[in-house]
Specification:
The protein has 772 residues and is mostly beta strands. 11% of the residues lie in helices and 36% in strands.
């Protein structure tokens, strides 16, 4: 089990291809990365063991313009700050240069291939740009931290590596591919992306010809790259889990198991499904190889150099060759980490808030009541999942608590940072089981943590033969099948006994109550949704269940990705109640739920009916009704003056408020709303946009008259970060941009912040999240 704090990452991927039927690239690749505080630009000419950029440039020249790969090359570099320039290539080109990138493709592929195949001497078309790249990389002022180089030979396709993907305004991913995926897999990946709409409507165009939309127009390298990028996006920018998901997914309605395909590369006229890759965020390289251990080709290796740098190379091996399925992480400021058998690992990302998870794969440290367990914290001179060493920091950054349910009782475990040696273990017995579900709480605003877990995975046909799941009680179950299935399929023979399934981001309920007249069928809470491997679920049955097991059908469903509301900010709690909102006006884009003026849940509206998870903790306090606020396509925020709630016994809608903490489930319809008042009677502080943000956001407010105001940013500890404005402001609407800097103009870290508007008569506060 390993952990590493996660960052957004620039990608270099390497995958090896040979084919006579598909568009392919049989290529060479090199990379260098310097340690923190050092630069590749200052490295002197080496001794012939690939420890300096000169030798890598010579290698690329030798293998491209006059050697085995005569179709061109690409060289790029990333500076010490992780910068790579935006490049907009709108048409297919044969030569392209920017301050940090040099691309060349052969003007006549067939002629060049003919010269290599039959004359054994490729045309020396393009030597000049390679020398320009060499000069720029060795210029001290450029402070080069990472160098990427790739040459290629293609049978029929144009377009060169490294491919680029603009993730956001601050991050560009890059990808070099050297290997091969079969045509049926290429087509399936293209379809999984959504076909042409991914490259056009979703604005992810080809680097080399923006008119490309059909899968057979792309080199398989670029399709594979975009598939990996889509998984990184789905994992919130976490590259390690994104890569793992991309290479192990089951796609094409369960027909293609990518883990199986990439675990069995072979040769039949050409090499099939060989995938080796390298990733970087400007600070770290991620290497993976799936070529056979007894192969003398499709090699990938790395070495630490005496000049405070690392080298990566294909072809002949450097000091450390990767075995099949190895993943190696080389950081600029930490020791390299080797993950053996990458496919036999689980990778979990723990984000701020409550993470509903399970651990289908664990390393056995003992058994209890017939169940294998791994320790949660350090004990008996052995590491635990959340604490590797005695008195050490938690494995998960800002880990606060784990909740669970065992033998009918809810238990919890806390950690207090003033006493790291002691976990508060309440009925937990320091045991994590593979079949159980848990809620792991990470401090609000904390950076996400990637946890890599080894051990034995629970068999797909595993049964809970040691206990009865009693009716009308919540059971905290993990989902241990290694693919997603819809809940009605996953529960199999037990489905007719399922009453409620609660997940981190949704709830299913078998609603036997009457529905209101004109209600859509089904309600949002009756929607069939998929279960995901390694997630935790709260399940309530209508009857006792013995020998529970998941229904292993290989009928795969795509996991849902919840769109986050941008104009409302709230804090997740350990549990929630559910509100279905029906009959939503088409102009409404987001809905927020408020309790005593504080937002406790929100949703982005994508249909006429939505489900909102509401995180109230008011069960045993004074009765406080929920109120609603909506945003519209015009960007304005409007309070809902009235709503009707469904009487679950009679099926009739009543003019009745929902009191927080008094129910688990509610259904509401908004009443007819008056036109928004043009006259402003009180000061109003709106939600910032975007939220979460990186690094800038806009804060808007309205004033009923001219008055003195103060707008200030505070951190989660209540400390003043920056005063954005203090003075007189006119009547009407105002907007102020915060650039994510403190009072000394230094960028602030990721986390939860508050912005407070102080007026002559009121103080208004809202929350926002900086997420880098």
């Amino acid at each position: 089990m390993f952990s590493k704090k996660n960052k957004l990452i620039i990608v270099i991927m390497v995958v090896f291809i040979k084919s006579t039927v598909i568009l392919y690239a049989d290529c060479d690749m090199v990379a260098m990365i310097s340690k923190t505080g050092f630069s590749i630009s200052t490295i002197e000419m080496g001794t012939g063991d690939y420890d300096d950029p000169d030798e890598f440039i010579d290698f690329l020249i030798d293998h491209s313009t006059g050697g085995t790969n005569p179709d061109g090359y690409g060289v790029t570099y990333i500076d010490e700050d992780g910068n790579f320039p935006y490049i907009n290539t709108t048409n297919l080109v044969t030569e392209f240069y920017s301050p940090q990138a040099w691309y060349v493709t052969a003007q006549d592929i067939l002629a060049n291939t003919y010269y290599y195949d039959y004359v054994h001497n490729g045309n020396h078309y393009f030597t000049g740009p390679m020398e320009a790249a060499r000069d720029a990389i060795k210029l001290d002022d450029n402070n080069v931290a990472i160098v990427l180089g790739h040459d290629r030979r293609s049978s029929t396709a144009l377009g060169n590596h490294p491919f680029r993907f603009d993730y956001d305004a601050n991050t560009t991913f890059q990808f070099m591919h050297n290997g091969g995926i079969d045509d049926d897999i290429k087509l399936a990946l293209y379809n999984e992306l959504g076909g042409a709409s991914w490259f056009t409507t979703n604005n992810h165009p080809s680097n080399w010809n923006t008119s490309y939309t059909q899968y057979n127009q792309f080199i398989d390298s670029e399709i594979l790259f975009h598939w990996i990028m889509s998984n990184i996006i789905d994992n919130g920018g976490d590259v390690l889990s994104g890569i793992h998901d991309a290479l192990t997914a089951t796609i094409d309605d369960g027909e293609i198991d990518l883990e199986y395909e990439f675990s069995n590369p072979y040769y039949y006229y050409y090499w099939h499904n060989v995938v080796n890759f390298v990733l970087t965020d400007g600070e770290t390289l991620y290497l993976f190889r799936n070529g056979g251990n007894n192969w003398d080709h499709h090699l990938l290796s790395w070495q630490e150099n005496d000049n405070d740098s690392y080298s990566v190379k294909t072809q002949t091996e450097l000091e450390n060759g990767l075995n099949q399925f190895d993943c190696v992480v080389i950081s600029r400021d930490e020791e390299p980490i080797v993950y053996n058998n990458f496919f036999d690992l689980d990778i979990k990302v723990f984000a701020s808030g409550y993470n509903w998870i399970s651990y289908p794969r664990l390393t056995e440290q003992g058994t209890s009541n017939g169940y294998l367990f791994e320790q949660a914290y350090f004990a008996n001179n052995e590491p635990g999942m959340f604490q590797l060493t005695s008195g050490g920091n938690p494995t998960i950054t800002d880990f606060e608590k784990i909740l669970g349910h065992r033998l009918g009782d809810i238990y919890d475990m806390n950690i207090y940072y003033d006493d790291l040696t002691g976990f508060n273990d309440q009925d937990f017995d320091n045991m994590l089981h593979r079949h159980e579900g848990y809620k792991v709480k990470v401090a609000s605003g904390a950076e996400s943590t990637t946890l890599v877990i080894d051990g034995d995975r629970l068999p797909s046909n595993y049964e809970l033969s040691e206990e009865t799941l009693e009716a009308s009680k919540y059971h905290w179950l993990g989902y241990w099948l290694p693919y997603s299935q819809d809940i009605d399929v996953a529960f199999g023979e037990f489905w007719d006994k399922v009453k409620i399934v609660k997940a981190e981001n949704w709830t299913y309920a078998d609603l036997s109550n009457p529905r209101g007249a004109g209600d859509p069928e089904p309600k949002p809470s009756m929607k069939i949704r998929p279960l995901e491997y390694g997630k935790g679920y709260l399940v309530k049955f209508s009857e006792d269940v013995d020998d529970f097991h998941w229904n292993d059908t290989n009928i795969v469903s795509e996991p849902e990705r919840k769109e986050v509301a941008e104009n409302f900010t709230y804090e997740e709690k350990a549990d929630y109640e559910v509100i279905d909102v029906l009959g939503i006006d088409p102009s409404i884009t987001e809905i927020g739920v408020f309790e005593d003026g504080i937002c406790v849940g929100a949703v982005a509206v994508q249909d006429s009916a939505v489900q909102i998870l509401v995180y109230s903790d008011n069960a045993n306090r004074d009765p406080i009704p929920f109120t609603f606020e909506v945003t519209t396509g015009r960007g304005s925020s409007i309070p809902i003056k009235s709503y009707n709630s469904l009487n679950l016994r009679t099926g009739e809608y009543e003019n009745r408020l929902i009191i927080s903490g008094r129910q688990e489930y509610s259904v509401v319809k908004f009443g007819e709303q008056p036109e928004p008042e043009i006259t402003i009677n009180t000061a109003k502080l709106s939600g910032n946009y975007p939220n979460p943000f990186n690094p800038t956001t806009t804060i808007s407010f309205s004033l009923p008259n001219e008055q003195n105001i103060e707008l200030t940013i505070y951190n989660i500890k209540g400390q003043k970060v920056k005063k954005l404005y203090s003075g007189t402001a006119d009547k009407g609407d105002h907007s102020i941009v915060w650039e994510g800097k403190d009072m000394t103009e230094k960028p602030v870290s990721s986390g939860l912040y508050f912005y407070k508007l102080r007026t002559n008569s009121n103080v208004l506060t809202r929350k926002m999240i900086m997420m880098k």
